Amino acid sequence: MTAKEKYHNYCKTANNVSIYQQDWWLDAVCGPKNWDVIIYENNGNILGAWAYPIKKKYNLQLITMPLLTNGTGPIITYFPGQKPATQLSHEQQVLDELITQLPKFDLFDLYFLPIYKNHLSFYWKGFTQSTRYTYLIKDLSNLDTVFENLNSTLRTQIRKAEKEITISESDDIELFYKINSLSFKKQHKKVPHSLTYFKQINEACVKNNCRKILFAKDADNNIHAAVYMAWDAQSAYYVNGGADENFKSSGAYSLLLWHAIKTAAGLTKQFNFCGSMLPNVERFFRSFGGEQTPYLHLKKVNSKALKLFLALKEK
Fold it and tell me: Residue 229 pairs with which residues in a beta bridge?
């Protein structure tokens, strides 16, 4: 049985695999041939599994993040009753083995999920680490408490928007993409992901019953904003969204995200805003009262030519 076949079976039974680590998600965002798996076993038991993206570009081997994927990382099997020191030693042993099994690459550039906090094994093997931040609402069990933790101005905005805006669910991925594109147009940027690419993700999520597309509309059926959310057993994720600049004062986007959080409460345990490091977006996400949570950005460049190119680019 190949490592990929073992991983397919592992994903079917394990409860510690995030949506972004699932085999079907990687098929959708990378293509079935553009990701691979490392397995570390002992007596037939999987102690560690790492599904990673890999592609060739300009004759370079690249391990880099797929679009619309908000984290990755090795999956480690822990044992009940392990003392903290023993657990840490076990974790580093598994990571050391998995890193050693990585294929030859010219560039490694990945964001890890917030659950990964220990980067020593990577540091010792020459990887550089920087810290990024997201916001997590870690407990969705009491929505009254969650609402009270929202910024007071945001609560007022949501209450006002509720009088004029209606939230609805839809399967119209093309309409969502149109609204999503407006946010990039506002920044004078090209949309980094195509409609075809988003459709691949959507079809995979629909098949696995783990996504909702939410629209905010007014009485005249004008769409003010849209949000695409997905979830697994542990968390819901803000995958993407967009808003019409013509209606930015309506508060629809705030109401829409609050509705997404309420929806997530009936599906999973927490809500992950998935970034962002952009100042305006960070302030907006922070206003929802989530806990600022670091996540790792790990990088290593092995290609001398690429190192030189990147150094010149930074000057």
Answer: 212, 238
What is the rounded distance in angstroms from the CA atom of residue 258 to the CA atom of residue 260? 5
Domain 3-133+295-314 has CATH 3.40.630.30: yes
Looking at domain 139-289, its CATH class is alpha beta
State residue 315's pLDDT score. 62
3-state secondary structure of 145: helix
Query: Quick count: other Cβ atoms within 10 Å of Cβ 17?
Result: 21
**pLDDT score at 185:** 80
Alpha-helix runs per DSSP H in the chain: 3-13, 23-30, 84-100, 120-124, 143-148, 152-162, 173-186, 195-207, 252-265, 279-286, 304-314
Rg of the chain on CA atoms, in Å: 21
For the chain, what are the domain ranges? 3-133+295-314, 139-289
Return the ∠ at Cα 43 (arms to 40 and 44), rounded to 5°.
65
* Tens digit of each residue's pLDDT (9 = 90 or more) over 176-220: 999 999 988 877 788 999 999 999 999 999 999 999 999 999 999
Burial (Cβ within 10 Å: 0-12, 13-18, ≥19) of residue 279: exposed
Q: Residue-wise over 172-195: b if at least 16 C-beta within 10 A, else e?
A: ebeebbebbbbbeeeeeeebebeb
Q: Name residues of the chain where pLDDT drops below 50.
A: none
d(CA 248, CA 55): 39
